[in-house]
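Appendix B, Record 12. Input sequence as logged:
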Amino acid sequence: MLTEPDKNELLRLIEAGQPLAERWRAKLFPGSARPAEVGKEYRLVYDGKMKREEVLAQTPAAPWQLVRSFCTERPHEDGWRNLLVWGDNLMALRELLADQQGPNRLGTRNKIKLIYIDPPFATRQDFMKDKEKAYRDKVLGAQFIEFLRRRLILLREVLAEDGSIYVHLDTKKGHYIKAVMDEVFGEENFQNELIWKRTPFAGSSKARAAKFPINHDSIFFYTKTDRYFFKKQFQPYSQDYLRRFSNPDNDPRGPWQSVSLKTYSQATFAELKVDKRLIPPQRKGAGWRYKWFLAETEGKMIEDIWIDINIDNPMSAHRAEMNYPTMKPEKLLERIIGASTEKCDDIVLDCFGGSGTTVATAEKMDRRWIAMDCGKLSIYTTQKRLFSLTTSIGAAKKDDSSEPERVEDWTEHLKGAPGVLLITEKARKGECEVTLELLDDLAALAKKYDLVKKGSSLSLVCPEDKLRIPEDQLDEPEEAPGAKRVVIGGVEFRISLIAPKDKAEKEQPLPAKEFALFRAGVYDMAAIKDLPWEDYRPFVLKLFGVREHPHARYGFALDGYIGTHSALLWNYPDHRKLTLDYGCVDDLHRTVRGKPGERFYVIAPVVAMDFAEDEVTRDETTYIFLKVPLSVLLRLIERKEPAALKQPAKEEDVNEVIDAVGFDFISQPLVDWTGKKASRKGELLTEYVIGISEFRARTLATEPEDFRNFETFSMAMVDTEYNGDFFRLSQVFWGEDLIAKAGGLDHVKQLEIRIPDAEFPGKRMMVILCDRYGNEKSLVLEKANFDGKAQRVALARRAAAAIKAARQTIAKKPIKKRRKSK
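Logged structural output:
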């Protein structure tokens, strides 16, 4: 807010080239704070760090391409469907943010109440302290920090105002990311560092490193603002603590313990008195106390050190079925989701989906979810998990309580009983029952050796199902309700019963609600061309980064801008038979009255263009033609490797960090294969064998001949009970393992995928052969496909089809001059 004298003075200073005094800062930039002097505060500085504004402005939004919907017979009432996204999560998040800021078609605006991520950090050196690797590790560390920071910036933007985020990290880089999160979310919004002890075992005593064994992860809990939802979490009290509660006065409200009434008002005192909870002072100088009933407690409040949730046993059926490394337990996610979400329409987001633990737990807790991952194995594992859900969260927990823990008045036994007989091992095996005959023998023994004082009873503890004394001979002592009493041979026996172990709740199948699978950054070009205009238009505009802003030039409608230059999107879906030729360029030039130095962009599929040039000039006006998809690809080649969503070829690389632009178009790899049924040498076991003699990636930027055979083979995923509808992963065969078995990349002639006969119970199997870029070749095989005769017929048909296609290609080529031949 400058006055006229201010303006005149400012102009004078500028024209004179004089520096501006500090007072001008507040006048020119009201509300801005003076930046802290260097050295007065700590800053996070490293190579490659982008400004927050640059991350938001320069990250391209990758439109989501629908692959298919699942479980449509179980829709959400309001039309929502859960979202599973395969692609670069950075660009997928940018698209999610763009949708929230714009049309909100996905319905996530201010609905994402919880974000949980377990980001991978997998340098092959594993940050060992080897001097030769130290520098490289620091470089990789800086790359990882920025890789995650950019995603955290976008995650904060899509998070609801009252939302929370939990970032799960191990000990390698956890506290570097703590500093990043202080910067992104604000140190004032840090709530907890949660310490999760992964396993009850401390590690091998034979470990080579001279240090304490590492047995924990850190989970950093931040919120977006100071207005966030949080529900306290509780766990059952220990048996030792529960023994503090008793019911000596048979209060119908149940067991209680005496608690000091330290400070209280007269109203509170009167209320406790009316409620018959006051306990008068028991000695001189003591204060009033009151009854605190066990029924009023929710359990022990969970603190920031979690030692009660163990990582899933690698040998468990649940872990073996998923067969995914670094899988986290559902109980861990149950606690986090329970603490930071409230309603069934709260959305939980995990952009490093992994094995799908977040998704599965959210589904079981009736929460909505969004999951993203760049790995095909992750997507198929999550998809499989959603089709095999049960009502229980995690593995069913067994009751491991001991016999004393299941006896109601065990403490009383230990205090005053002259003798305790605990029938354990033999009773459990059904070899010992408490009968009148047994008690008669015990009474005789007690009297013979004077084991019981006069007026006392002999205490006995017995499993419920081993008490074989008629009910009419038993009664309950008033001072010990729940116990049984019987007098045999002049000796009183007081019998306390060992309660049976709690039975685990039986798991029930839980059908998943509707969800949809999308691609982000890797697209099916044929599917794009098949879109109707109303879907094609926004999708392709986003592909080319067009700022959508419809406007007109001399009455001619244009769609938006690339930079400051107008862009036109050709309506290919409604004009498939029309082509753009030089005449169209001339007509466009006359209509928009192009001026020297101007640039106009025209976006159209390659098949709709009748010329090869990318630029056409008319009267010094340049018309730039962006061809779907080649122009996208070429623009990205200039920046980074386009086929960026590389897939692992071995299990330990599943979570390898990938930080590259994720745009590409699906290109099916070149594959040659045969099938047979065989047995291993010297064994009777028969197997279905898929022999792969050729496998090469085919991308828009490369040809199959650019790669050595099998060089780009990532993995084979198999569904041995394929139902004809959707793929349900059952086995994974890693490329590096298959190549190693076949003699290595320099010597391999054929890879073999062997499925034992007993593991192929269905009528059909689906095999997905995946290259390093996520492109797939899917084979649906019946048992007849492994018959030698059927294979020969199939090969002959494929060869005939290849010859026919080659002849058609040759026939289309112009013939300049034929050489004479015999």
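Residues 241 and 647 are 51 Å apart (CA to CA).
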